[in-house]
UniProtKB/TrEMBL annotation:
It comes from Escherichia coli. CDD domains: PL2_Passenger_AT. This is CP4-44 prophage antigen 43 (Ag43)phase-variable biofilm formation autotransporter. The gene is flu_2. Residues 737-880 form the Autotransporter domain. It comes from the Bacteria. The lineage of its organism: Bacteria, Pseudomonadati, Pseudomonadota, Gammaproteobacteria, Enterobacterales.
Amino acid sequence: MKRHLNTSYRLVWNHITGTLVVASELARSRGKRAGVAVALSLAAVTSVPALAADKVVQAGETVNDGTLTNHDNQIVLGTANGMTISTGLEYGPDNEANTGGQWIQNGGIANNTTVTGGGLQRVNAGGSVSDTVISAGGGQSLQGQAVNTTLNGGEQWVHEGGIATGTVINEKGWQAIKSGAVATDTVVNTGAEGGPDAENGDTGQTVYGDAVRTTINKNGRQIVAAEGTANTTVVYAGGDQTVHGHALDTTLNGGYQYVHNGGTASGTVVNSDGWQIVKNGGVAGNTTVNQKGRLQVDAGGTATNVTLKQGGALVTSTAATVTGINRLGAFSVVEGKADNVVLENGGRLDVLTGHTATNTRVDDGGTLDVRNGGTATTVSMGNGGVLLADSGAAVSGTRSDGKAFSIGGGQADALMLEKGSSFTLNAGDTATDTTVNGGLFTARGGTLAGTTTLNNGAILTLSGKTVNNDTLTIREGDALLQGGSLTGNGSVEKSGSGTLTVSNTTLTQKAVNLNEGTLTLNDSTVTTDVIAQRGTALKLTGSTVLNGAIDPTNVTLASGATWNIPDNATVQSVVDDLSHAGQIHFTSTRTGKFVPATLKVKNLNGQNGTISLRVRPDMAQNNADRLVIDGGRATGKTILNLVNAGNSASGLATSGKGIQVVEAINGATTEEGAFIQGNKLQAGAFNYSLNRDSDESWYLRSENAYRAEVPLYASMLTQAMDYDRILAGSRSHQTGVSGENNSVRLSIQGGHLGHDNNGGIARGATPESSGSYGFVRLEGDLLRTEVAGMSVTAGVYGAAGHSSVDVKDDDGSRAGTVRDDAGSLGGYLNLIHNASGLWADIVAQGTRHSMKASSDNNDFPRPGLGLAGFAGNRSALQYH
């Protein structure tokens, strides 16, 4: 329903006044309601006869109650009480073409009027109204006087010469004070629902004229236009004043004042939780900031003659202009130079690149931000003061404990970062003896020197590779080390009852000393030994990988976490209580002699975690890594994965209890299902299985039966020999040789292949097997001749074939299958004595075998070469 000043006009006949008037059109722009324009009448309003439809209250006459609807008019020259008006806005809000509703003429009075949606009360010059209530969709056009108007979603348009006193603007109501108009003692309860400093202009109070003693409550907003003036305004928490014109003697009791470009504010008093914001191009003079109040001067803004009381906050940068006095005396921020500034209770000074600050006091709640290339000297940091800087800035001063600190030339010395503080170490720079008490330390590479201390919620964020050759210590409370990589020959020291969390970090140090509290490694790769004290706790979570020994502490391995125990660790791994759902591996970094490693645990709670143990089945002693349960219990379920660290083709039959992999000592006990074997261990001819003994320890024992692959190996040679023998003997001797040389023949042959059970491999016999073979043979004669009464034929042949047999173990169970793909080349010589019919065949043959033995658990490819020679019906075979 609001309209701007830019409107179009047309002539209309006003039958109330009996004149032509210039009326503003209802202009709209970008979907917003048009603004307000003042219609210019061509004739003065005079007492004229009313048309028959008009209701006139003559001077001296009083009318009580009544309703105006359906384009009715009431012209009041006397007094009208308690009227309800529901008509008059036929041409839209504040449009001079409107002719209906109630018209209060010069000398006329209206009291307790109710204006509903579509209703209009017009108060002309000399007229007065009181206690009008205007609902949504209704309006009051004021050129006279109005007292105690209530806008319950309705609108009040105060034109030049009009005076509105005591108006209350409730939700969605709007008061427009035009140039030359005055509003006093207005109470604004709406307008700020769109958020702080939102230029909605649809509700609340808009001032083009003068507003005096306005009270702005929660959700209220006063917009002072460029030509407007607001005097003696009080703004409470949740309300705000937007100044494009002039604001005089505003008091901010928790509310906000925004001084925009071209706007001025003079004599503003900022009390507790109040906030004056001077934007680029805005000007504030003689502002007083009391305790817990705040003055913010943006870049390009100006605030002069400021009185900053103790506990008041100044928020600005060296790109602004601010002068005044604080508890230290005169201060200034002018032309990129700040001097004697006090920062506390939310105060902040940004020292920009190339700018300087001297004699800055940073107390509790204050912040000094020195940008890269900025300079701050003689800084005094108090308890709770915040410093924001990086190693490209130049800062010097004293810490809250009186110790000197400095940043400059890529070197930071003795920094103390309190809660909220932040320092960034750039690549190639060095930070020495840094203390972080709840602040943020970011290292984008660079070097940590001396003692770096993290306390009370401190965060050390790494980006890239950072070097620590000295000590990183955590003494009080919790701390977080995250991201990047920390390398070097330094150490990490954890003291105090809190928790150090290392997250998404690659950590490589000489040692981590866990003296007190908890160390949590989350999604990190850590290569170091963890030397702990009893009563501490180490937690490996996420996808963490720890490469190193642990001695001693309580350890939790979450699912997905891995602990690699190297055989060259400086200490033996000893754990008090181990809760295990992840993976533990014994790893070897040595060459030469096998040296088994040991993990000693008091109590093991297996949660389907795995432990990989290296085993040497080909050795009689010192032949396995070992888990030792010392004086406690092994419960739950832990999976033992066995890694053959020796020659898989060689394995010894175990003797006694077998190869010990879990040892229970000092009265330790292990539950029946505490350990299960996660994979088959096979070496040589043996399978090895996990067994629990009466001493609560667990052993690997070779099984009495050969492993399934042994019969397969034994069958391979026989299968190859059988195939070669059949192929070599597949050529029949030729009789009555005749025809031409170079005769070529193609043959295809197949059949059964196998052996009966003759006692099995335990008795040195061939394993029982059954299968088939087949091949394609192509041969050609190279020579056919008659020599001394004998027919002589010589030639060559080639063959491609396949055989497959199923093999059984000695106990009749299925061992597996042997498959052979073979390619052969051979030559033959056939001699026939023509007179007697005697003959002889001589055959030489070579075969390339590609054999594959498959059991239920393993596949073993095995290439081989077969050589065969035949003379007559006798043969000699040799295989390699």
